[in-house]
Amino acid sequence: MLLHETKVPQLPTNVPEGCYTYLAENIKNSVSIPIFASNRINDPVLAEQILMADKADAICFGRALIADPFFPLKAKKGELNSIIHCVACNQGCFDSIFLMKAITCLRNPIAGKEAKMELRPITKKKKVMVVGSGPGGLEAAKVARMRGHEVHIFEKEDKIGGLINTVWTPPGRSEFKRILDDYNYWIQKLDIKLHLKTEVTLKLVKEFNPDFIIIATGTLPIKIPIPGMERKDVYWANDAFTGNVPIGNNNVIIGGGATGIELAIFLAKYGSLTPECFEFLTFYDALEAETALKMLHKGKKKVTVLEKLPKAGLSIGKTTKWVLLDKCDKLGVKIITGASVNEIGDNYVSYTDSLGKDQIINEVDAVYYATGIKPNIDLYERLKELNKYPIEKVGDARKPATIMEAIEHGYKVANRI
Fold it and tell me: Which residues of 3-29 are buried (b: 16+ CB within 10 A; e: fewer)?
């Protein structure tokens, strides 16, 4: 596919919405035939703005129609909040194509399987308790309610989303916040009862007395046995995204999978000039454009990623991996593969490289581990021991999975209650 033989990303989520409309505008200014704008346009409001700005005569929608086949009809009726937005993850579409698999969609679990996964009528209305509000739990709650069940979501935090709240934090990933915006709409629209800041205990379950329990309690981080992992300056990667831990000047990330690579980009850009500040300062000539560009693209933090496997980013989809690794390179992130960490010490990290030689990174003031996750199933196991309630796990509580896999499984479970 020639569209991926480019040094400039065309389709992933880090491509700003509508940023290629200038190409359509340039062509439109030179010809007298209708011109279509395309690439990363998945919102009717943006599409209308492009047309009103006279940058194009029409808009091409591709992946947006996989995420929501009723997109045009909803836009025509003005039901904009009900549109299920594509987040340009490429997981179900382009990544599947490269693997010679059928197209599906992270946002639309029935895409390509409509006949097999249509909503089933319920035989008896049940009181459904969803514990946790990650993507699997949210989809399960939505589908169970659409089928007619009484649904309650219990979330220990003050907002829904689970790990999605860390997924949309890194630069170029804000589109994923739309997933939460969409689910918040459906929670209100379908009258799903939402109980925030509520940690579920056995006592609460007994008092609530549900007819069915969906466990969507997510995961817990895995700490690999490395001397020094217990140090106070060693943090879980996800806590860096949420701002719950300090950011160092010379940072080492243990683990070069999807989370480790995303964190590397986050840290490398930490403290960089915001686009709003860049526009303001250069518009008023308060800062030279060349200097402002350097401040816009990169922060001042040093970042090293230590990955034990021969290659980094193996858990990232093919259409996105090259973009993230290229970004790491441009931001000066040092990725060392084939590295086995030996010790985390006072201002240093020692490791053995791929050639079997011992190496040391000095002057380290923060270490973050992205060494895997495991299902958080303590509540599930205690409830199973009671043998009183029908219960099923979804999402990462079932097994660590992608957002797409969590949503699809949440749909399936809710569709058979």
Answer: eeeeeebebbbbbebbebbeebbeebe
